[in-house]
Design a protein that fits this description.
There is one protein chain. By secondary structure, this protein is of the alpha/beta class. It has one domain: Rossmann fold. About 55% of the residues lie in helices and about 15% in strands. It has eleven helices and seven strands. The chain has a seven-stranded parallel beta sheet with strand order 3-2-1-4-5-6-7, with helices on both faces. Strand 1, helix 1 and strand 2 form a beta-alpha-beta unit. Helix 1 packs across helix 9. The N and C termini lie far apart (about 45 Å). It binds NADP nicotinamide-adenine-dinucleotide phosphate (NAP). NADP nicotinamide-adenine-dinucleotide phosphate binds next to helix 1 and helix 6.
């Protein structure tokens, strides 16, 4: 449940990947709550659509063009936000993509793109924003991880690797900046239907022939079934995730991690309680089983 408005401690928010899916829902909720929100993204139509939506409703929300994989683009976007609204007090590193491919054949170029967006992009934006937060001794950095940052499923090796790494750098950063009044928080959602799944299929299309006919076709079939079942049965919406992000901003002090969805909570407990062998047995039973 949302905390009352008078507990608001910060004002200016920059959210990457803020023009679609979970980021867009968070941008709108935070603007509704009175934060001055800058939603960053690459796609000009999505940016224009979100700006028009916010303008019609008189919300304090603007968009900025930013590709988290491009130094110049990040520099320009951060400078633009500062010149309009002053110091960024809350940074939400949300932009992300996911490749679906067996580790035997995943192309190094795709692995690099996976890490460029989900990990190096986070570091790139954070390094532009952090010095000012440190000098002002004030700020909150919220990194969008995943249940996949806790448990690696077969075929999701590239995506999970990027989220495991994001968990690690967030844990290191949290301690590094703890002396400067800055909090670092991880948000860990399970499956929530957004455009993410379609983008992921599109990015992974070079592996489609292997998915249908190659030695990993059983894994693919079972993975797709399990994922479609989880998505179609999912009672969760991007707005549920947005409410958790709002809580992570308002809690004082915030928790290091917030899960979103039951699946994410189960993943956390599975990782704590099951041995590696037991988890492997479960994964092999689930993904390698021949079904009719
Ligand atoms: N949906 C889920 O089930 C789920 C579960 C766990 C974790 N997550 C994580 O939550 C985050 C958001 O996912 P989502 O479901 O909202 O995905 P989405 O609907 O596909 O939105 C992704 C956003 O990231 C932006 N983006 C992608 N590449 C970018 C780049 N290079 N530079 C700047 N922006 C970029 C996209 O905007 P443009 O294309 O316009 O740039 C878009 O706004 C991701 O980090 C994802 O890993 C999602």
């Amino acid at each position: 449940m949302a905390a009352p408005q008078e507990r608001k401690q910060f004002s200016t928010v920059l959210i990457t990947g803020g023009t679609d899916g979970l980021g867009r829902a968070a941008a709108l909720l935070l603007a509704e709550q009175g934060y001055r929100v800058f939603a960053a993204g690459r796609n000009p139509e999505r940016r224009a659509q979100l700006e028009a939506y916010a303008r019609e409703r008189g919300m304090p929300l603007e968009t900025v063009e930013m590709d988290v994989c491009d130094d110049g683009s990040v520099d320009r976007a951060v400078a633009q936000v500062r010149s309009k609204a002053g110091p960024i007090e809350i940074l939400i590193n949300n932009a992300g993509i996911g490749y679906l491919a067996p580790m035997e054949i995943v192309e190094i170029e795709h692995l690099q793109r996976q890490f460029e967006t989900n990990l190096f992009g986070v570091v790139r934006v954070t390094q532009r924003v952090l010095p000012e937060m440190r000098e002002r001794r004030r700020g909150r950095i919220i990194n969008m991880s995943s249940a996949a940052g806790k448990v690696a499923q077969p075929l999701y090796g590239p995506y999970s690797a990027s989220k495991f790494a994001l968990e690690a750098i967030s844990d290191a950063l949290r301690v590094e900046v703890s002396a400067f009044g800055i909090a670092v928080v991880l948000i860990e959602p399970g499956y929530i239907p957004t455009g993410f799944q379609g983008v992921s299929m599109e990015l992974s299309s070079p592996y489609a022939p292997a998915a249908e006919n190659g030695p990993y076709k059983t894994l693919y079939r079972n993975f797709k079934k399990a994922r479609n079942r989880s998505l179609s049965a999912s009672p969760y919406t991007p707005e549920d995730c947005a409410r958790v992000i709002l809580r992570a901003i308002r809690d004082n002090p915030p928790r290091p991690r917030y899960t979103v969805t039951r699946l994410a909570r189960v993943a956390t407990w599975v990782k704590r309680l099951l041995s590696d062998r037991a988890l492997d047995r479960y994964m092999i039973r689930t993904y390698w089983r021949e079904r009719g």
